[in-house]
Amino acid sequence: MTIHATGFAEQHARLMDEIYRGQRHFYDVTRRYFLLGRKDLIEGLAPPFGGSVLEVGCGTAWNLIAAAKHHPDAQFHGLDISRMMLTTAAHKVAAAGFGPRIQLAEADATSFKPEDLFGRPTFDRIFISYALSMIPGWRDAIDRAACALSAHGELHIVDFGRGEGLPPLFQTTLHAWLARFSVEPRRDLEPAIARIAARLDLEPTFNQLYRGYATLAVLRPRASSLRRPDAQPTRFISDRLSAGEPAAHVARPPQRARA
Ligand SMILES: C[S@@+](CC[C@H](N)C(=O)[O-])C[C@H]1O[C@@H](n2cnc3c(N)ncnc32)[C@H](O)[C@@H]1O
Q1: What is the pairing mode between strands 149-160 and 102-106?
Q2: Which residues of the chain have pLDDT under 70?
Q3: What is this structure's pTM?
Q4: Residue 28: what pLDDT?
Q5: CA distance 30 to 250
Q6: Is 223 exposed, middle or buried (0-12, 13-18, 19+ CB in 10 A)?
């Protein structure tokens, strides 16, 4: 396992390890009651035959194992910044007999390099389930994931929603309780996703589930961009910016044209 960490990422990794050191042992049993929408996301992934799927912030691999059962013809990959969570994930993957189909790696969602971690630059499906609400640089994590999609790739996201149909007292109590575990529902999740999608020429769709408890978002290539012939290899926006390319050139529409 490789970690690409700056000082801040190392600090965050330590925080995640502290939070999950004990919790990871009963995480799967407890989270099924309040991480709602995960099954909807898994069922909706529909990867192509033989396709590749990456989960960013995979935790104990509960989603990866469920997705591998649901989509038996795909290969799965998961990354997480917490070594503790990955240790539990590796045990669960092996116990479920999915060792050959689920690969795990330690990495920061905001700076991961898929080629270094998994030997491939892109994935047919990437999903992020209840991790953005724990990642300080969550917009960069969405950006990074969106840039690692193959030409026909889709990014699926589920996290705490706007809660518009929920009693305000429930919302306040839930958010106060989540804050104790460094979980912060992202109030501007939808506009942030929409902005990233627009820049990368992806089409976003949003669904509020369970009276707004959860938001399920999917970013897909626009039909028009799939037909464009001027293919270019994927390069992460942050890498292009640090290489000194002007911001006007970092959008990625032509890349989406590859078959
Ligand atoms: C609430 S758990 C969700 C786990 C899993 N996705 C699920 O739905 O059960 C959030 C996960 O995100 C991971 N995480 C937090 N910050 C991260 C980062 N910067 N990069 C990668 N993973 C991160 C945590 O270690 C934790 O495993």
Answers
A1: unpaired
A2: 1-6, 226-259
A3: 0.86
A4: 85
A5: 42
A6: exposed
CA-nearest residue for atom 10, ligand 1, is 131
Q: What angle do CA 257, 108, 75 make, to 5 degrees?
A: 55
Q: Which of 11, 16, 158 is the pocket-test mutation for ligand 1 (most atoms within 8 Å of CB)?
A: 16
Using an 8 Å Cβ cutoff, are 214 and 36 in contact? yes
pLDDT for 226: 64
Distance CA 140, CA 162 (A): 21
Please name the residue that has the structure tokens 């998994």. 118
Strands (DSSP E) contained in the chain are: 52-56, 75-80, 102-106, 123-129, 149-160, 202-209, 214-221
pLDDT, tens digit, 9 for 90 and up, residues 100-128: 999 999 999 999 999 999 999 999 999 99
Taking the alpha carbons of 240, 244, 250, 256 in that order, is the dihedral positive or negative? negative
Query: Which residue type occupies 45?
Result: L
Tell me the CATH architecture of domain 7-257: 3-Layer(aba) Sandwich (3.40)
Show the ligand 1 pocket: residues with CB < 6 angstroms. Answer: 12, 16, 31, 35, 38, 57-59, 62-63, 80-82, 85, 108-110, 129-131, 134-135
The residues, any chain, with a CB within 8 Å of residue 97's CB and separated by 6 or more, are none
Question: How many angstroms separate the most distant Cα atoms in the chain?
Answer: 53
3-state secondary structure of 129: strand
